[in-house]
């Protein structure tokens, strides 16, 4: 297969493929980070995670329209503004959902699965009613389009670079928050020993709410970023859930590192297989491998305790 | 105390069974035309899955979000058998390769794949409907439960399995009919299943099989195994420390639920006339969970009622208020979890039953039945262990 | 092949009477508003009265397919409205019963049965995906209905109870590949599609044809429905440097794919490689965004920008009915043809009976179709021309090529199987 190419071409091809793998890795991390935070904190899987992501995407869409109509001069900057707004909007919705629904269900994580699935149906229908059943097109600012010539033969998509930088920024931000900030310390305390944390005066309810909101906010940013690479429609959230859940479960979800390691493994496996096989088989094989590994090591890659 | 309550239940339950039987076998056939009755037959096949979920989720505490896999496996086994019957050389004479199903011909297959061959036999097919899903469930169960994976992890993995199977079926269209499924099924051993009389007969067979499943489930639930399941769902560690191998019970109940769902799938294929991967995936599997939840996850009869009610609502609403229906369905998921976790059966037990008892003069129950009490207990305790395994002595 | 006559003996007498009716010149028939009473034009108990006839519309208005099927519903309703304004069919106004398939194939089958058995509609305009059609097909054949199916599809089907108003694969593909090779000098092809029957079958046909022309297929790939990460295959395309990338990706994957292509620096305007698709109509471009797909070539039988008079009137009428922003894709136009073809067949037969229109359907010609001229073939597909369009920034296509002749539909192409 590689006979017809010169060494230089081959290196450039592998470099580009490696880069594609890294982009996939960043995408997985962004998708899974929000969910992992929530899962690690509360043992809750939010089935509406995809819909929160799409909320971020719709916010971006609205922001781009506002800028196009009222602030065309600084249109190029709208993307940053959109992401910040998306973070707060989805975070706020997350806080509300936690208050209204999730906090009553903490002792029943399986029931939370069902309740959040119901929430996802409602959100999908809301999107359909408000924005229409068709996908909406988000016009990207010029500086995000096209690719960057690294060398003569190696081109990397600019928005891929953007996604990677964004992922690094957010992951670092989350890590810093967890390790250094007061909220982070409180969160870790609640995760490790909830009654004790409550006993020393930490408002566990508030910590839970903020964590859930944070997780949803990150989902919103991810969704906003994905307007560059994917579709924005009422059912687009469904496209991401299986992958996201597997990444989170595979990683063990007790640490950021777990999620990152898991996202890395799965994305590299998938993109390598995609290169040599066809897309469908690669997907099936990746899923199968993850499931089998989970069967052999059900607590995931990084985990502190056995899960029940 | 337990014996007395059980006796009461037995007496009350027979009435309930008779009412359900009357509805299914007498009232509905008499009051509906064959078209609507066929729809009810379809709903009743989903009830098999809901029933299986009552066993493995309600009693066993094992939530599977991929029951569509077993429903589909049973359905595909039956579909393969029926398709072979509809693809005899005489009927398929216009194909390039007569004697094989039409979709294989379009995919330029020239002979029947080896794994289709055994489905020429009715006996094999019936066995396969029970055994293949059970084996599948066994493999998944052994891999998961022996390693004490449960709860949310298990649920997500069943989702992944459903996703994998869907992709495989759609992609391997030469072998499985792909996204279109296996369609145009006509005869079962020479008997045309598309005529109205056939639909009536199939409806009653379906009803009978459903009652068979109900009796089998009640037998399991009321046996020692049933009580162990309840104990296990509540206090898994204690059961384990008492010397039982908890994982074996979970595997058993999961396989049983799989086999029951598969029977539903096979009856679906017979009544609807085709099977497609759209019943195997994540969305239909989760819908089946809602049927069970609405009926009352601990109530065997409730599962049947829940399935019927939700499906009737779906058909009615989606005709008149399609947009509203999706909101309603989402709200149903949330409501069933938050407001009435024991579903309709719970509402019946806590409100209607005492009222009926008062009206008809029998002793009112002033204590909740063991099942309700334990349920209240369980939702808070066992699953709390997911969060705080350090408090094992809870 | 199956056909059912429900009432043989009375049918014979009615048929003799009808045959004498048919002797009356067609012009007189059309002009005569006071028609033969319902019994004469409807011997099989369809929903026909002296003033009205009922048809069914069966599409998804909810679920994932709702996006795509909206256009078909709009087109069918517009056609019905226009036909009614002209006096209806056999002097009867068309009423319709609309059912929602809800993007769920068993629901399609269920609703089709309801329309045929309970509502006794005289025809059904419906379906979009092959899966829905496959589910509905046994119902149509068992209860002897007539379905008008608008989507371009993989062929491999030919039913006496369906009229396929969209192209089948060979019509779209062979012409497209011929054009690429002849006009654009293409020598190598990379085939990329979503993983299900339509792209797989289309690519089989494409591959065989490429071979026949003595050209090369350098890659063939499938991605699951709903897949969203295409960077690997984009790299492979860069690696293999094909002259043409032949695309049959559908649904949500479409948007992701084209956005990622653009992000990877592949300019479709550069035409190296040339991108040729059979799955992107004006409707899909709405979701993808004109700026992401500008420069792609598509092989369809209809584009909204076709410059003939019929189409100009059609587009104007459509916009008047549904708003200026509306776009009209190939499937929408094909759906629009359905009621007209049905009307023509019914009037030629002088009856709504399915068995009678089965006889009159082959050979029906529509000269006022927005795509130009079409004719119904014996195999129930349409003779039609294939065009190649070049996508513009505003989401419309520039028609750059039109097949000189009508292309014969060939759903079971020998040598390609």
Automatic annotation (TrEMBL), chain A:
Q: Name one Pfam family in it.
A: BPD_transp_2
Compartments where located:
Cell inner membrane
> Mind telling me which InterPro entries this protein's record contains?
ABC_transp_permease, ABC_UrtB_bac, BCAA_transport_permease
Q: Which domain of life is it from?
A: Bacteria
TM ranges are 20-40, 52-71, 77-97, 158-178, 212-233, 239-263, 275-296
Kindly list the biological process annotations in GO that this record carries: amino acid transport
What GO cellular component is one of the record's annotations? plasma membrane
> Which topology term describes how it sits in the membrane?
Multi-pass membrane protein
Keywords noted in UniProt: Amino-acid transport, Cell membrane, Membrane, Transmembrane, Transmembrane helix, Transport
- May I ask which residue range the UniProt record assigns to the signal sequence? none
Instruction: Please give the Gene Ontology molecular function terms for this protein.
Output: transmembrane transporter activity
Q: What family, per the record?
A: Belongs to the binding-protein-dependent transport system permease family. LivHM subfamily.
NCBIfam families, alphabetically? urea_trans_UrtB (TIGR03409)
PANTHER family assigned to the protein according to its UniProt record, in alphabetical order: ABC TRANSPORTER PERMEASE PROTEIN (PTHR11795:SF447), BRANCHED-CHAIN AMINO ACID TRANSPORT SYSTEM PERMEASE PROTEIN LIVH (PTHR11795)
UniProt name for this protein: Branched-chain amino acid ABC transporter permease
Q: What is the lineage of its organism?
A: Bacteria, Pseudomonadati, Pseudomonadota, Gammaproteobacteria, Oceanospirillales
UniProtKB/TrEMBL annotation, chain C:
- What start and end residues bound the annotated signal peptide? 1-38
Q: Which domain of life is it from?
A: Bacteria
Q: Is Transport found in the keyword set?
A: no
**CDD domains to which the protein is assigned, alphabetical:** PBP1_FmdD-like (cd06355)
Q: Name one Pfam family in it.
A: Peripla_BP_5
Keywords (A to Z) from UniProt: Signal
Task: Tell me which PANTHER family the record gives.
Answer: ALIPHATIC AMIDASE EXPRESSION-REGULATING PROTEIN, PTHR47628
Q: What is this protein called?
A: ABC transporter periplasmic substrate-binding protein
- Source species of the chain: Thalassolituus oleivorans MIL-1
């Amino acid at each position: 297969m590689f006979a017809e190419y010169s060494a230089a071409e081959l290196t450039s091809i592998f470099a580009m493929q490696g880069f594609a793998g890294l982009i996939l890795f960043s995408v997985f991390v962004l998708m899974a980070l929000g969910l992992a935070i929530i899962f690690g904190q509360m043992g809750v899987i939010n089935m509406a995670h995809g819909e929160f992501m799409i909320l971020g995407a719709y916010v971006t869409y609205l922001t781009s329209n506002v800028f196009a109509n009222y602030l065309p001069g600084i249109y190029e900057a709208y993307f940053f503004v959109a992401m910040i707004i998306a973070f707060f909007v989805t975070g706020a919705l997350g806080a509300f959902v936690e208050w209204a629904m999730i906090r009553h269900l903490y002792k029943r994580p399986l029931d939370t699965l069902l309740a959040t699935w119901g929430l996802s149906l409602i959100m999908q229908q809301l999107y359909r009613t408000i924005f229409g059943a068709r996908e909406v097109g988000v016009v990207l600012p010029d500086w995000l389009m096209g690719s960057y010539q690294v060398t003569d033969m190696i081109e990397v998509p600019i928005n891929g670079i953007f996604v990677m930088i964004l992922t690094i920024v957010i992951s670092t931000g989350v890590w810093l928050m967890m390790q250094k900030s007061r909220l982070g310390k409180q969160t870790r305390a609640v995760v490790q020993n909830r009654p004790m944390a409550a006993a020393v005066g930490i408002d566990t309810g508030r910590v839970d709410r903020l964590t859930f909101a944070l997780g949803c906010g990150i989902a919103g940013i991810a969704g906003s970023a994905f307007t560059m690479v994917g579709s924005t429609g009422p059912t687009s959230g469904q496209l991401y859930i299986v992958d996201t859940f597997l990444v989170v479960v595979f990683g063990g979800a007790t640490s950021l590192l777990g999620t990152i390691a898991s996202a890395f493994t799965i994305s590299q496996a998938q993109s390598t297989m995609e290169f040599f096989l066809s897309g469908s088989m690669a997907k099936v094989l990746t899923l199968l491998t993850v499931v089998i590994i989970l069967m052999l090591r059900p607590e995931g890659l990084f985990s502190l305790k056995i899960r029940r | 105390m337990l014996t007395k309550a059980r006796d009461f239940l037995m007496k009350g339950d027979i009435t309930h069974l008779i009412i359900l039987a009357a509805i299914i076998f007498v009232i509905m056939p008499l009051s509906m035309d064959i078209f609507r009755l066929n729809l009810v037959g379809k709903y009743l096949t989903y009830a098999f899955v809901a029933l299986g979920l009552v066993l493995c989720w309600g009693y066993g505490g094992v939530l599977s979000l991929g029951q569509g896999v077993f429903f589909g496996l049973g359905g595909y086994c039956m579909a393969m058998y029926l398709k072979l019957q509809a693809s005899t050389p005489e009927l398929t004479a216009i194909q390039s390769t007569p004697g094989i199903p039409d979709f294989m011909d379009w995919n330029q297959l020239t002979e029947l794949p080896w794994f289709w061959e055994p489905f020429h036999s009715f006996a094999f097919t019936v066995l396969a409907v029970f055994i293949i899903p059970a084996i599948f469930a066994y493999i998944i169960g052994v891999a998961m439960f022996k390693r004490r994976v449960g709860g949310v992890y298990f649920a997500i993995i069943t989702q992944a399995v459903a996703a994998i199977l869907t992709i495989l079926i759609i992609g391997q269209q030469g072998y499985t009919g792909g996204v279109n499924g296996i369609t145009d099924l006509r005869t079962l051993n020479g008997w045309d299943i598309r005529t109205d009389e056939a639909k009536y007969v199939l409806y009653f067979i379906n009803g009978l099989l459903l009652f068979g499943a109900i009796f089998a489930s009640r037998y399991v639930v009321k046996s020692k195994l049933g009580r162990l399941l309840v104990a296990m769902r509540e206090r898994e560690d204690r059961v384990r420390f008492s010397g039982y191998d908890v994982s074996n019970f979970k595997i058993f109940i999961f396989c049983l639920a799989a086999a029951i769902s598969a029977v539903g799938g096979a009856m679906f294929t017979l009544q609807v006339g085709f099977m497609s991967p759209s019943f195997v995936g994540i969305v239909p599997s989760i819908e089946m969970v809602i049927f069970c939840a609405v009926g009352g996850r601990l109530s065997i009869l409730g599962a049947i009622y829940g399935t019927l009610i939700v499906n009737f609502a779906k058909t009615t609403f989606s005709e008149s208020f399609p947009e509203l229906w999706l909101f309603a369905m989402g709200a149903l998921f949330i409501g069933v979890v938050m407001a009435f976790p024991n579903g309709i059966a719970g509402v019946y037990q806590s409100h209607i039953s005492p009222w009926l008892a008062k009206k008809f003069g029998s002793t009112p129950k002033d204590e909740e039945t063991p099942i309700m009490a334990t349920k209240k207990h369980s939702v808070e305790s066992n699953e709390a262990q997911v969060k705080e395994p350090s408090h094992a002595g809870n | 092949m199956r056909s059912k006559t429900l009432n043989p003996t009375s049918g014979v007498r009615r048929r003799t009477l009808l045959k004498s009716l048919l002797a009356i010149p067609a012009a007189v028939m059309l002009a005569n508003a006071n028609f033969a009473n319902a019994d004469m034009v409807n011997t099989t108990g369809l929903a026909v009265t002296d003033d009205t006839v009922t048809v069914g519309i069966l599409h998804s208005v909810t679920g994932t397919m709702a996006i795509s099927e909206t256009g078909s519903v709009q087109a069918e309703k517009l056609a019905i409205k226009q036909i009614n304004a002209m006096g209806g069919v056999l002097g009867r106004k068309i009423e319709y019963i609309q059912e929602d398939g809800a993007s769920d194939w068993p629901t399609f089958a269920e609703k089709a049965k309801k329309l045929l058995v309970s509502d006794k509609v005289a025809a059904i305009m419906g379906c979009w995906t092959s899966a829905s059609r496959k589910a509905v097909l046994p119902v149509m054949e068992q209860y002897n209905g007539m379905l008008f199916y608008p989507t371009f599809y993989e062929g491999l089907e030919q039913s006496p109870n369906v009229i396929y108003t969209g192209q089948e694969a060979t019509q779209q593909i062979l012409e497209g590949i011929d054009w690429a090779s002849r006009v654009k000098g293409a020598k190598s092809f990379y085939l990329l599609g979503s993983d299900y029957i339509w792209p797989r079958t289309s690519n089989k046909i494409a591959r065989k044809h490429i071979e026949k022309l003595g050209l090369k297929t350098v890659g063939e790939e499938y991605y699951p429905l709903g897949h969203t990460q295409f960077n690997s295959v984009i790299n492979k395309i860069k690696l293999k440097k094909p002259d043409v990338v032949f695309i049959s990706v559908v649904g949500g994957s479409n948007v992701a794919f084209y956005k990622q292509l653009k992000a990877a620096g592949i300019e479709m305007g550069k035409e190296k490689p040339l991108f040729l698709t059979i799955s992107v109509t004006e409707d899909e471009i709405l979701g993808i965004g004109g700026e992401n797909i500008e420069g792609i070539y598509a092989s369809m039988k209809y584009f909204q920008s076709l410059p003939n008079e019929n189409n100009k009137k059609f587009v104007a009428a459509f916009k008047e009915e549904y708003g200026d922003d509306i776009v009209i894709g190939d499937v929408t136009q094909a759906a629009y043809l359905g009621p007209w073809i049905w009307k023509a067949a019914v009037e030629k037969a002088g009856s709504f009976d399915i068995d009678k229109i089965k006889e009159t359907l082959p050979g029906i010609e529509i000269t006022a179709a927005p795509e130009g001229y079409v004719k119904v073939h014996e195999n129930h597909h349409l003779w039609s021309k294939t065009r190649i369009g070049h996508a513009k920034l505003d989401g419309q296509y520039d028609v750059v090529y039109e097949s000189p002749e009508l292309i014969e539909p060939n759903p079971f192409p020998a040598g390609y199987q």
